[in-house]
Amino acid sequence: MNLSSSDSNRLRSKILQCLPLRKRIAMGYLLFTALFILIAGLTFFVNNNNIDTFEDVSTLNNQLLEDAQFAKTLIELELAASRYLYEGHASAADEVYHLYSRLQVTLKQRHQTITEDPIRENIQSITSHLDHYMAAFSQAQKQRKLQNKLRNRQLPELAAQIKTSLDVIVLIEGENSLTQAQTYQLENALLGIEVDAQHYFNDFDAKHIQLAKDNFIRTQRLLTSWHQPKLQQSFEAYEKLLLETVQRTRGYLYLLNVVMSSEAYEMLYQLDQLGVTQKAETTRTEAAILAAIHGQTFIISIATVILLILVLLVSYFTGASITRPLKKLESVFKKMSEGSKEAVQIDYKQDDEIAALARAAEAFRNQNIDMHELLNRYTLLNETLEAQVLERTQELSESQQKAEQATKIKSDFLMMMSHEIRTPINAIIGMNYLALQTKLTAKQHDYLTKAHAASQSLLAIINDVLDISKIEAEKMVLEKVPFDLDDVLADLVNMSNFSMVEKGLNMYIDVQPSVPEKIMGDPLRLGQILLNLLSNATKFTDFGEVILSIRQMPEQKNMNAVMLEFSVTDTGMGLNEAQIAGLFESFNQADLSTTRKYGGTGLGLSISKQLVHMMHGDMGVESTLGKGSCFTFTARFDLPDQPQGNPYQLPDVVIGKRVLVVAHHATLQRITASYLKAYGLQVDIAASYQEAIQYLNVDSSYDFILMDWDMPDIKAMEMIEGFKSSSQSADLLIAAMVNPYGHDDVIAQAAGTCAIVAKPVRPCSLLTLLSLVFGQAVPEQQFIGGKIFQVDHRIGLQGSDILLVEDNSINQQVAREVLQRAGVRVRIANHGEEAVQMVQKHYFDAVLMDLQMPVMDGYEATQRIRKLAAFAGLPIIAMTAHVMGDEREKCLQAGMNDCIAKPIDLKHLFGLLNKYIERPSASFKREALESSEFILNVRCLAGFDIPCLLERLGGDQLLLHELLREFFDQFSGAEKKIRDLLRDGKSKLAEELVHRLMGAASNMSANTVYEAAKNINIALLDGASDISDLLDLLDHSLDEVITAIANLRVPPELV
Amino acid sequence: MSKKACNQQRRHFLTTSAKACIGGATALAFPGILHAVNRKPTIRVVGTHVTLQEIIRKKAEEDLGIHIEFYPGGSAEVLLKASTNPDAFDIYEQWSNSIKVLWNAKTIQPIETKRLKYWNEVNDLSKKGKISSDANVGYGDAPYKMLYTTPDRSLTSTATDSISFMPYVHNADAFGYNSSIIPKGIPYVTESWAWLLDERYHGKVAIVNAPTIGIFDLALAVQAKGLMSFQNIGNMSRREIDRLFEIVIKLKRQGHFRGVWSSVPASVDLMYSKQVDIESMFSPAVSMLNGKGVPCIYAAPKEGYRAWHGVMCLSSSAQGERKDAAYAFMNWWLSGWAGAFIARQGYYISNPERAKKFMSEAEWGYWYMGLPAREPLRGTDGNISVQTGDIRTGGSYVKRFENIAVWNTVMDNYEYTLLKWNEFVLV
Fold first, then answer.
1. Which helix (H) or strand (E) holds B62?
2. Rounded to an integer, what distance in angstroms lies between the CA atom of residue A590 and that of residue A606?
3. pLDDT digits (tens, 9 = 90+) for A1001-1011
4. What is the predicted pLDDT for the residue at A927?
């Protein structure tokens, strides 16, 4: 329809307005009738079409019938030809010509009607062969007649002539006469020749003719000797006639057997081909007909639908044209009954039923005019009221603006406050940390631990408040830097997995293979959102699993950006609809009781949602009460400029390797299998040990087994034993997926696994695993992010010199002590000016620079230092309470290398320092550490209180190993040395050694050794004479410790 | 272009321009003559399409100044005509296997060698049966065996001064195969008549529809395949014929043969339309197929060729002026141009040295010497049928005619083979 619907409506109603109602109804019926006739017509047309196609089929069938008829006629023709040629039936020849003319007619017709090329060629070929055949036939007919004449008339006549002349010659007197005997001889020869000829004509054997020829030669010789030239000529003529007859016979035979038979064969062959072509044609036509019928059915369906729509439209418009004036009238009456004045104007030109009603209404209206006047007064009053309402509304909006401004002021205030509160909290946390490092009573330790926890919570709350204030004050700016997604995941695992494992929850990370590894955005904020969701999930889930899934959203418009979807699914308590409704609002957890039970400000989700919005995404939740929740958010990330290949691309050797995954949990099965498949491996999955054994028994060609360490009903050690014994290949590789917080990894290593992967398994972990298992050198960058265990960056900082520029003395103290513990030499400048002087006096590896300071702030100090040519490359790291967004930019502009947030996260600080301080030997070691997923994780060792020791070492396994080795080197055999020294009277040296052992054992939490050494020390100080019992005790406890260390197999790559 | 070809062209130009001058002069000198009785002698030549080609006729007329009428026809048809009616022709051109029939029918007369201008140049293959001392004579009726005539009207191989036919065109035939489907074989080593019966080519085989020729293709194939052997393949006994046809009829019943062909164009069409991949073949068909882009190879079977020899006979009725014209035509045939012409469709002439003068070096090298073609060569139809570097299968003229298995022959049991042939064709 070209007209817009309103235009066409108007047009229609104008036309319809000209007709009275009765006619309009009649017209509607007429239209219906017309449409049905149209449908009937179409059906008829389609049926007609179908009839045409059926005619096609019957034409084809007729053609096939004709072909059969043709073949029959052709065979009849050939039979008739044979009857004539072999048996000489004259009528048969007539039949041949009769059939020929019939075939010619058929062929001509077929040739005219057929358009298909192959069939045409067939027909042409048959026509030409038939013509040749008939030409040969007529020639054969001629030859046959000639031959018959020769054989049956001329030859016998000539023979009779010769016989007659022989009879006559006997009677003649003279030198030409022959004796009776001579004529007998000649007659015999002639008879012989005739018999030979007869034989030849019977069996066509040329030897008879040879005999006849010999006979002729002999006869000719006789006749020569008898001087009978006349007879000689007669015999010669007879021979010539006979040979001609033979030659004609040969020609005749040739025509029949070679020429005609080959033409006949070709005709039959072509007829056969015609059948094949026709059959193909029939099949094709049938298919075409089917298709046509389908097409027509389709057309009818479409037409019916269109007609149906037309019918509906017609009924609508016809109906409307009747009801509209009625409605108008109705509204007129309604308004009149309500007393409205102007509504009585009815614009109705036609003189129909409606018009009559309208006129009645007009009369009614006149009676009501008075009423309207009254109403007018009321209307005036109303208008005054409306003006008042408008005024009020304006006032309201002004007050709303004020309220918004107030919110902003509140947010600004809160933000400022948060900053101010952070500085003292920073001090509290720092001091608390230092206090916890000192020797404390159990009670003190408990108090301080709780104070530490409380201040951490306070800091978290302040941080949340700061974030929400920033967002509300519109001061939040997101960073845009390239980062590895896996780094974020690794940090998340470090921060959230332990609490999950503690609660007995399984954590899974499911990254879709297509998700790019390197993206641009704000990794810290992304991590913050994910951590919030994960810790919520942990909080509200008592058993089951938590899955973090990441996938790429399809249909990216922009080639340089990706939309990622993150979801955190748990099997926790879930939420009802009311809870979901208020979930993302500030200060709102599921309900207030929840806040009390689980702690937290309830700001996390609100902040997360707003951050997600800033990342051009959205956040939502789906949940079933009692079954679990799934928090999903999307976020857009730009892609770095340099093109990235598939980060998980492994070398070709790995492709097609066969791996058997043994895992009980369906999620673990699914995720592990999907990763491995994405790397091109062939994966089989066994849900139980028994199933795995079945797989191994059936097929021994697995390249390795990847097993979950925590299988129900069976111990991992037993499984490994079972796999090894059931496998045919001696070097079956087994890798284990292990929770990193026990000593399962140590056991797994001892059990002879080739590699251990920490759970939850990330794509990078498996990549590293595959590279190790299949001995493939992997480019370095693919290893980054492979770290699963916490690595202490303090390694490598030992012996470096750092300048700390800080005006706050508490902060000075915290930073100095922390750095000194890491073996760093620290000098302190109280403000920027001092710092500029000090860098010129002393050597520093790096500068830690506070920003707000008296005398000279950090920005200026940095700019001055940078102006000195020698310090262009000196790493300067800012310490600031405002690390977000523009603050960082300002620092970098001032010439600083990086910045770090206050309160200072030690891990982050050491990480940054390590990044900027170049120490080749140390960094090599660090590299090795980072690149390895497989650090021996010691959780328990005979004679040591490892948890206590680790706590002191900040959980640093590598440091632990080094200390243990050092302890081993220094004190293995110490007891014997003490005995020797005492025996040799070198008690001073013995005392020294005991003292040293005591100190070391204390530091190492080797409590029994410490006790034993302490007792010896006291005894020696007391001047006790016999301490052999005490020495035995020391021997015993020291032996236990030394053996334990010796048994600790340190992975070779870490030595 | 070679020097000879240049000469040839120049000569053609001179002749035509000279004629044009004469024509012009005649028209001027005798304007009143509207009609003149043609006084030129006319000869009628009966034969097959192989040599009765319009280009040859025109050229001969032009060179000889006589009228020549060609009556081409099928082999059997012309033989019947010639063996029954000497008045129907002056010259008869066909195969050596028709000589006995014609001679016995006395429809041809002896040809006097002294009236043949180039008789001395005719080579030993035609005169003595061997092209070289190493050559096989071959089974069947080698033409030399019935070349000379004796006063008592018998045919002999002993030289006399009259001959039953003038030997001219000849060739060594084999089968041809489509090398885009059948892998190329090694001439005289792997190429074998047995290929005609190879099961791999089931349904894609055709045989020439002529018992005096096709029977030998079948017999050579059956023998090469090791299915039977012949006492004398050139003159089979009835029992041998029975056995041979028993084998090939069985094969045909199984659908091994597509059929038989009756003319060179038919044989071309069969292979061109992919109905057959291997078949009995005559040399011009190979050239035509190559010209059409079908890589047809004319095999050089290790068992040897089936050879044929064209014969030119003089009707027993030809006398006087006609006889003189017939001799002139025979002499023209051996005078070089015709020999060079038919060389381009793969045929040899019995006095090649004279034809050489009418061929380019490249043509002579390719067609007669078995050398790689130095340039693309055109067939008689003007299409390029030989590409640079091509080598004629089977090698040189001498090499090919050293390897004759059998000559086309009308055997004693000819009639019997006709009956059997009928069975073979129709089964």
1. helix B54-64
2. 12
3. 887 888 888 88
4. 37
Span A348-376, pLDDT tens digits: 566 666 666 666 666 666 656 666 676 77
ipTM: 0.80
Residue with structure tokens 């309402």? A389
Segment A589-606 mean pLDDT: 59
User: Is the backbone peptide bond immediately before A760 cis, with ω within 30 degrees of 0?
Assistant: yes
- pLDDT of res. A624: 87
A574-583 b/e with 16+ CB inside 10 Å = b? bbeeebbeeb
Centre a 10 Å sphere on the Cβ of residue A331 and count the other Cβ atoms it contains.
13
Query: From the CA of B307, how many Å to the nearest CA of chain A?
Result: 21
Residues near A324 by beta carbon (within 8 Å), at least 6 away in sequence: A13
Q: Which residue type sits at A702?
A: Y
Give the residue ranges of chain B where pLDDT is below 70: 1-39
Question: Do the beta carbons of residue A820 and residue A826 sit within 8 Å?
Answer: yes
Q: Please count the residue pairs, one from chain A and one from chain B, whose beta carbons lie less than 8 angstroms apart.
A: 83
Please report, for residues A193, B5, B6, B12, B399, the alpha-carbon distance to residue B9 in angstroms, rounded to integers and kept in the order given: 61, 6, 5, 5, 32
Q: Are strands A704-708 and B257-261 parallel, antiparallel or unpaired?
A: unpaired
Place A1053 in a pLDDT band, splitting at 50, 70 and 90.
Answer: very low
Question: Distance between CA atoms of A198 and A210, rounded to whole angstroms?
Answer: 13
pLDDT given at position B178: 95
Residues A243, B105: C-beta atoms closer than 8 Å: yes
pLDDT at B36: 39
pLDDT band at A928 (very low <50, low <70, confident <90, very high): very low
Which pTM value belongs to this model?
A: 0.48
> Residue A229: is the preceding peptide bond cis (ω within 30°)?
no
Strand order in the sheet with A733-738: A682-686, A658-662, A704-708, A733-738, A755-758
* Predicted local confidence at residue B58, as pLDDT: 93
Distance CA A1046, CA A728 (A): 34
User: Per the CB < 8 Å rule, is A255 touching B259?
Assistant: no
Instruction: Count Cβ atoms below 10 Å from residue A627 Cβ, excluding itself.
Output: 12
Q: CB B419 to CB A204 under 8 A? A: yes
Burial category of B87 from C-beta neighbours within 10 Å (exposed 0-12, middle 13-18, buried 19 and up): exposed
Per-residue model confidence (pLDDT) at position A274: 80
Radius of gyration over every alpha carbon of chain B, rounded to an integer in angstroms? 22
CB spacing of B79 vs A262 below 8 angstroms = no
Among B422, B423, B424, the strongest candidate for a mutation testing the A interface, having the largest count of A CBs within 10 A, is B422
A216 chain-B contacts, CB cut-off 8 A? none
3-state secondary structure of A556: coil
Confidence grade of residue A742 (pLDDT, cut at 50, 70, 90): low
Grouping H, G, I as helix, E, B as strand and the rest as coil, residue B3 is: helix
Q: Are the C-beta atoms of B68 and B349 separated by less than 8 Å?
A: no
Residue A586 backbone zone (phi > 0: left; psi -120 to 50: alpha; other: beta): beta
- Closest B-chain CA to A254: B418
Beta bridge partners of B49: none
Span A180-185, average pLDDT = 85
Q: What digits encode the pLDDT tens for the residues A694-721?
A: 888 887 788 888 888 888 888 888 888 8
CA distance B189 to chain A (A): 34
Distance CA B182, CA B180 (A): 6
Query: pLDDT for A437-452, tens place per residue?
Result: 777 777 788 888 888 8
Q: Chain B interface residues facing chain A, Cβ-Cβ under 8 Å?
A: 74, 76-77, 79-80, 83-84, 101, 104-106, 209-211, 259-260, 262, 412-416, 418-419, 421-422, 425-426
Q: Please give the structure tokens belonging to residue A227.
A: 């001087």
Query: Which residue in A717, A716, A744, A720 sits closest to A734, CA to CA?
Result: A720
- Inter-chain contact B421–A205, Cβ cutoff 8 Å? no
